[in-house]
Amino acid sequence: MSADRTVHIFAGFVILITLLFGAPASPFYYSSKLLWITVFVGANLFQSGITQFCLLERILKKVGVDKDKR
């Protein structure tokens, strides 16, 4: 799996989990403060789309996840 695809899967997972535990309408509600994680992940995706810099992608490349492999 490519590093880019792994980043998207990880970001989507984090957003869904923080919404599950952070949205007051959720049956698994814990705290609205968890929604700040959702904001951070969304902002990071936005800036990486503009600047082409993603820390998680660099980490994945260093541990051996091939970017061009599909």
Care to describe what's here?
The chain has three helices and no strands. It is mainly alpha-helical. The protein has one domain (3-62).
Summarize the structure.
The chain has three helices and no strands. Helix 1 runs antiparallel to helix 2. With 70 residues, the protein is an all-alpha fold.
Percent range for β-strand residues: under 5%
Oligomeric assembly: single chain
Total number of beta strands:
0
Instruction: Determine the number of helices (DSSP H or I, runs of at least 4 residues).
Output: 3
Mean pLDDT: 90
Along the chain, the helix and strand elements come as HHH
State the major sheet.
Answer: none
In total, the number of domains comes to 1
| SS-based class | mainly alpha
Measured on Cα atoms, how large is the radius of gyration? 14 Å
Terminal residue distance: 6 Å
How much helix, percentage-wise, in residues?
55-70%
Note the main attributes of this structure.
70 residues; 3 helices; mainly alpha; 64% helix
Topology, element by element:
Layout lengths: L2 H20 L12 H17 L3 H8 L8
